[in-house]
Amino acid sequence: MTEPAHESAVALVGMAGRFPGAADVEQLRRNLAAGVPGLRELTDAELADAGVDPGTPGHVRVGGPVAGGVETFDAAAFGLSAREAETLEPHHRLLLECSWEALERAGYRPTDPGVPVGLFAGCAYPDYLTHNLPGLAAEPGGKPLLSAGVERDSLTSLVSYKLGLRGPAITVQTYCSTSLVAVHLACQSLLTYECDLALAGGAALPLPQTGGHVHSDGDILSPDGRVRALDAAANGTVMGSGAAVVALKRLEDALADGDVVHAVILGSAVNNDGRDRAGYPAPGVAGQAAVVDTALAVAGVKPETVGYVECHAVGTPLGDSIELAALNRVFGAGRAAPCVLSSVKPSIGHLDRASGVTSLIRAALNLRDGVLPGTAGFRTPNPALGDRFTVLPADRPWPADGTPRRAGVSSFGVGGTNAHVVLEQPPSREPRPSSGLCLLAFSAGDAAALDEVTSRLRAHLASHPDSNLADVAFTLQVSRGHFALRRAVVCRDVPDAVVALADPGRWIDGETRRRDPRFRLVAGTGSGWAATAASVHRLLAGDDVPAPAPTRAGALSALTAGLTRLGIRLDESARDTIDVEGGSADEWVLATLARLWLAGCAVDWPALHRGAGRRVELPPYPFQRKRFWVDPASAPRSAAYVPSWRLDPQPVTGLERRVRAAGPWLVFAADPVGEALAERITLAGSEVTTVRPGPRFAALDTGDFVVGPGDLPALLRSLVVVPRTVVHGFALGGSPGDVEVAAGLWPGMVTLTSGAVGVLGPDLTTPEHASLTALTARHVDVGAAADVDQVLAAVLHRETSLAVRGDQSWRLHHEPCELTGHAEAEVHHDVPDLGGRRGILVVRPDAAGRALAAQARVARLAGRGRWTTVVSTSDPGPEVLAAVAAADHLTEVVLSGVPLVRPIQAGESVQTSASVRPRPALGTPFVEPEPGLEQEVAARWAAALGYDEIGADDNFFELGGRSAGAVRIAACWNLPATAVMELPTVRLLAAGIAELG
Predict the structure, then answer these.
(1) Has this prediction a pTM greater than 0.70?
(2) What values do phi and psi take at 443, rounded to 5?
(3) Is the Cβ–Cβ distance between 260 and 615 less than 8 Å?
(4) pLDDT in tens, 799-813
């Protein structure tokens, strides 16, 4: 073998994770060094919450729940609604957070990092779907939530979408070896230049988190809750919970760009055992040996130069012995000292899909810090260990011998996919002094988070007094400035920074409300221009730029050149000014630069550091987590829900503003109610297109349309303005028309019916239309003499379907009902004639089932049959049906776990339509747009971005707007393509339009 070629090496530049007992990588390092285990005995309360009986034979009350839990999440940071957040699978949640943190730890922006970033990751089975969301697919709007935020296929693509990552996004699934296979694929992607930065990792979060496990003879789980990896007494493993992600970069690029390098990946390999093993789940000696040998060959290193291997070793007698046999085949005799073997699993358990990357992180830390790791609880060597290897009971310093420290990392998956990675210690980083003033600049999503960012940074600098402040400043500037709420501090050294970060009087705070504005210089007439010219040249000038004249003109010329070099747009016609006075020194220059950044200027921070900036590891963003969680439904044998309607009048205060914010409207009208709705929307000042039924398609001179059967695609093509709210009310005229087709063309559509539900009983007059209530996420049933304003308010309501009777709205609820009796009754699934019969009618919670249930209720109300309808996604058991039969006074029963309308948790807004979202939580307070042009601009932005309302001071880009959308908005008023970028709030753009006449 030859020595490694560093041009094909990959640097590990960032690490993030959450583990049992450790909320981040640094806490994991400290816990391992101090012998603090992540596995622990579970309390009685935890087991009770998990619904586990500790008296179950074979139950082991030991577990490794992930630190911080999985129920909370910062939905606002990732632009998710409450509905999206509460249904987001825990693996997706933690991978989003860890990917963000890995980028920040590496010193890169966590969103739109500026370079092509690939993502390779996998996760364990989504228990959240089966335990907590079993009926999600059947709920209104549930399938899109399922496909985007629960299915494993969407794991990496969702993260790439939310973070703006433009490299490959590949979900990997190879069981236990998933995350190390992801690392291998990420390295290959980097070396073939598919991306310039790559994230790799995995997540495994079994539910319930605190349930322990049940041991049975012959399985891999430990009977006593201890993991004795590599030990002669090994008798099983314990599954832990966690997620971890590493950031990788080509080594040459990482060194050139001043990145932190924690370790170097010299080579990696992946293979499969094929048939050469005892069975599908069994490991294979030959395959494991081959993958280690291949990785060493790719790395170009000899086995004897590897001083430590972080083993897969999960603590099973067979698995550990096969792994040791494979290593003995590769690592020959003749070593000066035995190779140290270790496994992190006795400390934190087997993290399944996250285990490989966790082992890689541990190995990287040990290489970086010069530690030969011990293995927790180790007593007696496994007989297969041999004399070429040793296992340490505790950590030891790694003695220096003039050669680089090297380690191997193994991960082997059920099914035989094996991975091995060869690591080397990071190259040394030359220390360099930091002199002169520095500008610390950072941002956050809200005031609380900004204060926490400040305190975290202060604590970090206080505990790292030898930090290079210029490197800290550079890292903050290039990676922590993407939020609108911003803070800057000018300081001279680390002790001064610690003081300044605790002193609000030294903070330069502001909120960005514009995108890259223009400024003009306004110079005073005082003296002291020589000092100003010298400071500007020292801080802002490029290399080899001659010193300016020590005059007013020289200072202004240097300031113009320096700011322009940093990307600040100067324009003599600009309204905003930079006031310059003679005698202004270094602090004024940096404070001015900070204020320009606060104003929204895009500063070229690397240019400020003249290309010499270096990244350092700093504390990550403090996510402001809230509980977004759907608790699993308890399901006693005969528990049920009984549907009932509750009075829930919708507020009409501010209705006109809300109607305008929801426009443009598309209203399908076939009766006086539909016509009255369209007229009311017009009176509110919103744009509305009315569609009426007719024999064939026609576009009217008024801008309205007539449609016949099959004409909806033609209507869609003919619409000049994309409607933001669609109301389909043809059913009010008796014939619903192509309503199902319309629901497919406009997924957020509100369907109107009349008499399709029975709020009071006799008002169920059109049971054949009950099927329409299942077609769209939102539905309003309009009774006789319904108040138009109340109907509009119900249409704008986004949580559940409503019924309007007179000037009041009613909401469907499902009341729990304990069924305890026992009786006999006929059970039917489909009855051609409901009249004159009685029994139990079992229906599915779909369109056909709703129609059949409505017909059964009409028959019962009319005395033509006595039916109890049971709504269930599956056939109920005989004991449940017998209990229902004993309660034949009930008209309808919805079995536990499958309610038609899932209960909404108190205090949390749940959205059922992704087409219209509430305004996100911004640092900018909501300001009502002024009537006229501001309201028109706000309405167009709301339609383009999908929000129910937008404030006058809201920033288009903070709301999630993109440049292409900004160009389209500008075109509405024949403005330059850059208009929204220069005037990014509703108020500014409206003022700009008004100035142009």
Answers:
(1) yes
(2) -150, 170
(3) yes
(4) 668 999 999 999 888
